[in-house]
């Protein structure tokens, strides 16, 4: 798709006018607000404001949107936070993102198109999974994670209990999750959350991802055991992972500031 003035993308708008767009966003937020971290919500709200000229469509550069959060919202966000928000919004069906290119063929800014709120029965993130009672848990022994793994190997490995899980998921994480959900689909979806959330964090090693996955899962289980009602473990897990990454980013900024001040 060729880059150009926002007016040329009017045909991609799914809304009759700005009021219709805002009404749909309000409906989306009822279901999704809790799925985003505080920083991601700042990013999302700023993208929504940039999508007012053509209802639900924005072609602003990421740098422009991120800069606006620093200047107007008082609490700025990072570029990686914005990208995580977009990845999450796409996964929930809130956004469709198109790549655009200049006349010379080089890549230009992305085009963000908000989608209408779907019929309630079609919303996939309403799935409920109950945590089994503790006395029914049968936790297998864990072993150390192999230092080498073939990322291209997507075969499912059969466990002793007959369950299957993708070999892309580290064994230590599989063994931990199986203590609570002995279902390879649940295990793979939880690991997919880690893969998506860290997609733009090139400095994250496989061990870093594993540590993040385990810490986040343990926190989720602790919260549930303490009485937290969770209707969607994947959305709740996503929120925990995002919050940990946000704290990590804030701590990094604080350390850089202290180093600069000294």
In short:
The protein is mainly alpha-helical and 262 residues long. It has helices at 18-32, 38-49, 62-72, 79-92, 171-177, 184-197, 206-225, 233-261, and strands at 57-58, 95-98, 111-114, 156-158, 164-166. The strands form two sheets. A three-stranded antiparallel β-sheet has the order 1-3-2. Strands 4-5 form a two-stranded antiparallel sheet.
Please provide a written account of the structure.
With 262 residues, the protein is mainly alpha-helical. It has eight helices and five strands. It has helices spanning 18-32, 38-49, 62-72, 79-92, 171-177, 184-197, 206-225, 233-261, and strands at 57-58, 95-98, 111-114, 156-158, 164-166. Strand 4 (156-158) and strand 5 (164-166) form a beta hairpin. Helix 5 packs parallel to helix 7 (206-225). It is globular and about 55 Å long.
Key words describing this protein structure:
8 helices; two-stranded antiparallel ribbon; mainly alpha; 5 strands
Secondary structure layout:
Blueprint: H1 18-32, H2 38-49, E1 57-58, H3 62-72, H4 79-92, E2 95-98, E3 111-114, E4 156-158, E5 164-166, H5 171-177, H6 184-197, H7 206-225, H8 233-261
Antiparallel strand pairs: 1-3, 2-3, 4-5
Helix pairs in contact: 2-3, 2-4, 5-7, 6-7, 6-8, 7-8
């Amino acid at each position: 798709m060729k880059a150009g003035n926002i007016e040329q993308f009017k045909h991609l708008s799914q809304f009759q006018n700005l009021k219709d767009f805002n009404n749909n966003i309000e409906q989306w937020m009822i279901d999704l607000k809790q799925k985003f971290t505080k920083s991601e919500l700042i990013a999302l709200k700023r993208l929504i404001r940039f999508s007012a000229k053509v209802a639900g469509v924005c072609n602003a550069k990421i740098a422009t949107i991120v800069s606006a959060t620093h200047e107007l919202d008082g609490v700025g966000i990072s570029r990686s936070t914005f990208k995580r928000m977009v990845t999450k919004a796409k996964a929930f069906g809130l956004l469709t993102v198109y790549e655009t290119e200049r006349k010379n063929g080089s890549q230009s800014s992305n085009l963000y198109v908000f989608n209408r709120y779907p019929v309630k029965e079609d919303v996939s993130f309403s799935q409920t999974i109950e945590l089994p009672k503790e006395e029914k848990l049968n936790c297998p022994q864990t072993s150390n994670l192999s230092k080498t793994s073939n990322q291209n190997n997507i075969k499912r490995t059969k466990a002793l209990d007959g369950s299957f899980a993708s070999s892309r998921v580290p064994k230590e994480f599989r063994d931990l999750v199986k203590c609570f959900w002995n279902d390879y689909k649940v295990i793979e979806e939880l690991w997919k959350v880690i893969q998506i959330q860290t997609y733009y964090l090139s400095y994250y090693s496989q061990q870093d991802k594993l540590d993040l996955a385990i810490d986040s899962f343990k926190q989720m289980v602790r919260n549930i055991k303490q009485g937290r009602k969770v209707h969607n473990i994947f959305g709740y897990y996503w929120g925990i992972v995002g919050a940990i990454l946000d704290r990590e980013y804030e701590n990094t900024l604080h350390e850089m500031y202290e180093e600069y001040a000294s």
